[in-house]
Design a protein that fits this description.
2 domains, Arc Repressor Mutant, subunit A, Tetracycline Repressor, domain 2, mainly alpha, about 180 residues
């Protein structure tokens, strides 16, 4: 009977997630992951003959982690602020989720309607009594602003200033309401 693997699939996924969290997605190679886990490359290659398969599972784990983090905010303003704070606290995961080319070629509407944003759109619909179409129209400019702030912060281009960001988000949301987008 073959020996049971001591480096499990779950341990590899968890280790790869932590490696990306600490070092970034560009650092994820089988050799670097093996060193991080303290094993040879063999168990990783056995469990994941394709690094792309492993990356997809890590993406799902990171996306679930991100969604749980931001949806704890409750209302749309707090969700936006938590999205930006996530970029401050978890810049490597933010870059992996949103700046690794996964959504290349998507339109803004396609990004907003992606399964990953389903929870946020439902908050917009419930909070403001909007139809899904109205929610997309209202959410699109806010998403661009929030993601812009988060990207700048995750890449150390601007300093994280939660109070200034809160004021900017409120100002934009109020402007959208005055324009009749809500």
């Amino acid at each position: 009977m073959p020996k049971k693997p001591t480096t499990t699939k779950e341990a590899i996924i968890e280790g790869a997630f932590r490696l990306i969290q600490e070092r970034g997605h560009d650092y994820l190679t089988v050799r670097n992951l093996a060193a991080f886990l303290g094993c040879s490359t063999q168990p990783i290659m056995y469990q994941f003959p394709s690094l792309d398969t492993l990356k997809e599972l890590i993406y799902r784990k990171a996306d679930a982690f991100h969604n749980e983090y931001i949806l704890a905010g409750g209302d749309l303003l707090e969700i936006g602020l938590r999205y930006i704070r996530f970029a401050e606290e978890e810049p490597q995961l933010f870059r992996f989720l949103f700046q690794s080319g996964r959504f290349s070629g998507f339109s803004m509407e396609e990004l907003i309607r992606a399964p990953e944003t389903e929870g946020i759109l439902s908050v917009v619909c419930e909070e403001d009594g909007l139809t899904p179409e109205e929610a997309v129209s209202f959410f699109e400019p806010l998403a661009a602003l929030v993601h812009g702030y988060a990207s700048l912060i995750a890449n150390n281009a601007v300093k994280y200033d939660p109070e200034a960001i809160r004021k900017a988000l409120i100002t934009i949301a109020e402007g959208l309401e005055r324009m009749g987008l809500k």
